[in-house]
Amino acid sequence: MSDTPIVTWQHSIAAIATAIGESAIGIVRISGPDALIIADKMSAGMATRAADRKALLCNITDQEGELIDQVLLTVFRAPHSYTGENVCEIAGHGGILVMRKLLERSLQCGALAAGPGEFTQRAFLQGKLDLTQAEAVMDLISAQTNYAIRAAHEQREGLLGRRTGELRDDLLESIAHLEAYIDFPEEDISPEVGLLLLQRLQRIQQSIEKLLATADRGRIIREGVRTVIHGAANTGKSSLLNRLLGYERAIVSPIAGTTRDTIEENVSCGGIILHLIDTAGIRDGSADVIEQEGMRRSALQVERADLVLALYDATQTAPDKFPEISSPQQFVLPVLNKCDCIEHPSWLGMNILRLSCKTGEGMQQLETAITFKVMNAEIDQGQNLIAINARHQNCLHRASDSLQRAIPMLNDSGDLTLISIELREALDSLGEISGKIDSDDILGVIFSRFCIGK
């Protein structure tokens, strides 16, 4: 991104940039045109003496000259800072009261309290980040798995912004070519050139569809997988829950019907978060009203699940068929438990994942199978982990819809002005992804989700 400032604010902002709580170190960040002046007032003129990006030991005092804390002060002069403005970071002892006093002192010296995401918003408006990179900052902060960290880093490095930027550049060239013909009809376009234009739009459309195909992956990486452990009574569903969690969460008993209601817990599995739901066992003929209600709730959970771990008992007869997928987004993984026991002959030769919740055998294979089932196996082969979010998906859908209307018209020699309008709508939709738009409403929604201090 360019180092040239795009926006100049009249005020400087400050916030505690580390989590609230007791820690060894906490940081107060100040950004804006008067950041060094404010830090000077706090530190008896030490900020202007500090070299760029070199920590300087100094004392921060209150209005009466009493010591608040001995800190390390680091200065980042514009435009070589996170926000593109003058930035001062004060690293003090991480107590709640100390941090609060350091922040209060910065406000007394002329800073205004920063709002959620205001530092990153300034970085975006200064051209230091595009909008996809700004969103990746929040994704990185909230990441709970290795996949989430990897996806956030790739987006933070501008991968998605570059991909959509390339599509936008290609589309812009197509629009320029088309509108030049509209403005200068005497300059006839040969059939070959018209065909090349059509092929370019089709390639752009295909690239958009490939990005849209990563939407489910992005949701899984950011939000996790709603995973239901389902099966007949006494197949070991609660034991599997306990194994996945690594501790005894559910009561395990050989008595059928022990689990009466759903039990929900979260666990990291193979680089993704599983929202585990242990359901009541399914069995015919139960007269227990509570158990019947538990089974009804189990059926509802299966319908809502992203992933169903269909658990079977190796000592019992194999079913005639396995559960069917209820929606295109749902995955079903049959699992055979109690492989430490004598297996019923009906399972012989059947290709099914086998494990023992009692001994732990097969649990690593289950983790691998879950990851393979819900994530594309290519991501472990060094390929890029693009994972669009809901906002990107909406923009791409609108761009795709516009192209789907434009391409047939171009193919049928339709009204070129209407085609141009559709292509410009697609261009605007792609521009929204990286923030090449003028919409305060969109920016307000995005940055309101950030934590204060970032």
Number of helices: 15
Q: What is CATH's topology name of the largest domain?
A: Rossmann fold
Which CATH class of the largest domain is shown?
Answer: Alpha Beta
- As for the number of domains, it is 3
CATH superfamily of the largest domain: P-loop containing nucleotide triphosphate hydrolases
Q: In total, how many beta strands? A: 12
Report the portion of residues in β strands. Answer: 15-25%
Provide mean pLDDT, rounded: 83
Helix content: 40-55%
Descriptive notes:
44% of the residues lie in helices and 17% in strands. It has 454 residues and is an alpha/beta fold. The longest helix has 25 residues, at 159-183. The chain is flat, with a radius of gyration of 29 Å.
Tags for this model:
Rossmann fold, 15 helices, alpha/beta, six-stranded mixed β-sheet, Four Helix Bundle (Hemerythrin (Met), subunit A), Gyrase A, domain 2
The gist of it:
44% of the residues lie in helices and 17% in strands.
Secondary structure: elements and pairs:
Blueprint: E1 13-16, E2 23-31, H1 35-43, H2 46-49, E3 56-61, E4 67-76, E5 87-94, H3 96-108, E6 112-113, H4 118-125, H5 131-142, H6 146-156, H7 159-183, H8 191-212, H9 215-223, E7 225-231, H10 237-245, E8 263-269, E9 272-278, H11 289-304, E10 307-313, E11 331-337, E12 353-354, H12 363-374, H13 390-411, H14 416-434, H15 440-447
Parallel strand pairs: 1-6, 7-9, 7-10, 10-11, 11-12
Antiparallel strand pairs: 1-2, 2-5, 3-4, 4-5, 8-9
